[in-house]
Specification:
single chain; mainly alpha; 5 helices
């Protein structure tokens, strides 16, 4: 089951952080159709956020067709965003993880790595916006 991590200093709305984390898990194949998301009560207990925030995130995911609420049962994944080669066990992910370890060892922090990655994505996708 997914565990949400809320960064209160990120400047990103809490409900959007939940939406983004679910989408990331769907892209990486960590969540698959039929999987149950944690209940609002479970998310509140783990993160100390307002239950309405969780429900807002789940409604957004439902609106996008990614999950569906089943009254009395919970919220379940409806469809995946995973693509071949993009899973958590992908060789590309392993290469990227090794690169980030080298970047960290070279003294770069998360923001430095994020800036480099954004630049590389822009270059690699030719500024088409296809990276997101």
């Amino acid at each position: 089951m997914i565990e949400f991590r809320i960064d209160r200093r990120s400047g990103v709305a809490t409900y959007l952080q939940i939406v983004q984390q679910v989408k990331q898990a769907l892209r990486l194949g960590l969540l698959a159709p039929g999987d149950k998301l944690p209940t609002a009560k479970e998310v509140v207990a783990a993160t100390a956020i307002n239950p309405n925030t969780v429900l807002k995130a789940y409604r957004e995911l439902d609106r996008e067709g990614l999950v569906e609420a089943r009254p009395g049962l919970g919220t379940f994944v409806r469809r995946s965003l995973a693509r071949p080669g993009a899973g958590a066990d992908s060789p590309l992910r392993a290469e990227l993880a090794e690169w980030t370890r080298r970047a960290h060892a070279a003294g770069l922090d998360r923001e430095d790595v994020a800036a480099l990655m954004a630049s590389a994505l822009e270059e690699g996708f030719g500024g088409t916006g296809a990276a997101g």
